[in-house]
Write a structure and sequence with these properties.
The protein starts with a helix and ends with a helix. 81% of the residues lie in helices and 0% in strands. The chain folds into 2 domains: 444 residues, MFS general substrate transporter like domains (Growth Hormone, Chain: A, Up-down Bundle); 53 residues. By secondary structure, the chain is an all-alpha fold. Helix 3 runs antiparallel to helix 7.
Amino acid sequence: MATSKSRWYALAALALSTLAIGLDTTILSVALPTLSRDLHASTGDLQWFTNAYLLVLAAVLLPAGMLGDRFGRKKLLLGALFVFGAASAACAWADSTGQLIAARTVLGLGAAVLMPLSGAVLTVLFDDKDRSRALSVWLTASALGIPLGPLLGGWLLDNFWWGSVFLINVPLVAVALLAVTLWVPESHGDRTRRFDPLGVLLSAAGLVAVTYGIIEAGDRGWGDARSLSTLIGGVVLLLAFVGWQRRNKTPLVDLGLFRSRAFTGGAVLATVASFAMLGLLFALPQYFSAVGGQDAFGSGLRLLPVIGGLLIGARTAEKVAARIGNRLVIAGGLALMTAAMVVGSLTDTSSGYGFVAVWITAAGIGLGFTLPPSMDAALGALTPERSGVGNGLLQAMRQVGGAIGVAVLGTVLSGAYRDDLPAAAPPVARESAATGVAATAHDPGLLHAVQSAFTHGMDVSLLVSAAIAAAGAILALFLLPGRTPDAPVEGERRVLAESGL
């Protein structure tokens, strides 16, 4: 019993750290108008508040996993938590745009270490029986940040100064530091591996270029020369990285991982689920605001059915997968996401919240059937020696997939919105639904046209998400193996058990 309690206490510590990261993902969006006013931030500055964080995250995920394997995951987790907490405080008290961008950069560094290493620790703490449940808790903690970010951010901005939206991380980090110190055991991967500086350079440069190119394409359009050249350059660098990894005797990433159907299938399908859902969660808050007239707090409240569905789906999937295996559960989850988004594409300006709540709950249940089992399949195929690097690779794929989802689906939404606007709409209305609503508030006819155009754009983006999820459902049947796990990870668990953990 003591062993079980220690492991679940450790999980609570790791969940707190991912909750802080999840909150930070969405809470900033609420504060952008205030930051624009108080720090005199330009549109470019506002973009860099987000992009600086994302680019560092993309660059550091893979080497962070390798460093944790080599030098000790607990040590790096504690260091990353301290960095994340200190950077959050620095964000709160920044008095210029440059200081805030620098602090957000350091914040991304802390998050990039926390994400792969917390997952790697779960791989060796929990056996096949409990790992799916542990992953559900860990992923749900991160997902909770999506609606809680706007809820907490809106309340804090109504009652305190803008820096409070960053300080919310500090108590979470303080509790996580104490809990990791007490209950997370030290664990290593292969400590004999040599450092791969060229691999780190190529992977970091490639992931940064791909992520930046996607972000820019989302803003400038997919026909923009600079965006496309950056994106293509990033792909070339990643291909060079793969070529170097195949020749290098001590590679940063063991490409042999992809010979495992469980790891490949789990990683690809987790990325597909992240693509579809992040695109959905990008559109919904704007819909609640532009069409429903909700503030940030109200929008966050209306996203809670997604999380409720995720909790229900994850708990149910855990029981069903024990009987029929991950393959059918994941395929079913993606099929349910497909159906939910197809129904969601029928949303119009007259749709009540009850209709929306039903289909977003179904989408959340589908996500619960998809994401934890996909990651469970991938992580279950990792040996303890490669769990850090393997988890870093898995998280990097999910992050880039999510960035692609937001950029692609955001571009689809924006294009369909602009195409559906009437010619009488003022030019400022074409920038976004928010500016369109503000510009036409005095004219009920044009306001309804702007709201209808946005809803049309959201519906089109939901159909694209549905197509991606449907393709994932088909892929799940071919990519994933049956119920036999590819690789046990019992060696290090036995050592942990002998130490009382």
